[in-house]
Automatic annotation (TrEMBL):
Name under which the protein is recorded: Peptidase C1A papain C-terminal domain-containing protein
Record Pfam families: Peptidase_C1 (PF00112)
Organism: Escallonia rubra
GO molecular function: cysteine-type peptidase activity
InterPro entries for the chain: Papain-like_cys_pep_sf, Peptidase_C1A, Peptidase_C1A_C
Homology family: Belongs to the peptidase C1 family.
A GO biological process held by the record: proteolysis
Source species, domain of life: Eukaryota
The Peptidase C1A papain C-terminal domain, residue ranges: 16-103
């Protein structure tokens, strides 16, 4: 969690909090189910979840981010798909390297 707070302090001009909230929730889900705490990629969500009301660092919705993770069969880790504080093109190679997944969400 400290890493998420430091990222926000370094890049307060971006509105990617929706993506990092979902990545943080996924970290907690993964720890509860596997016992392993893995830092997951908010940047993947920012760049690759482009459906519905999700607009990268311009804002988005947590519900569609969870839908993206479910459709994608997982989320990669932070070290593989690091935060860069800008919108870019989805890196499909990194996107396919799943570190944690969920089967459904409510």
């Amino acid at each position: 969690m400290a890493s998420l707070l430091s990222l926000e302090a370094m890049h307060p001009e971006t509105r990617s909090c929706w993506a990092f909230a979902v990545a943080g929730a996924m970290e907690g889900i993964n720890q509860l189910t596997t016992g392993k705490l893995i830092s997951l990629s908010g940047q993947e969500i920012v760049e690759c979840d482009t459906t519905g009301e999700d607009f990268g660092s311009e804002g988005g919705e947590t519900e569609t981010a969870f839908e993206y993770i479910t459709r994608n069969h997982g989320l990669t880790n932070e070290s593989t798909y690091s935060y860069v504080a800008i919108d870019g093109t989805c890196n499909v190679t990194k996107e396919c390297s799943h570190a944690a997944n969920i089967n459904h969400w409510l």
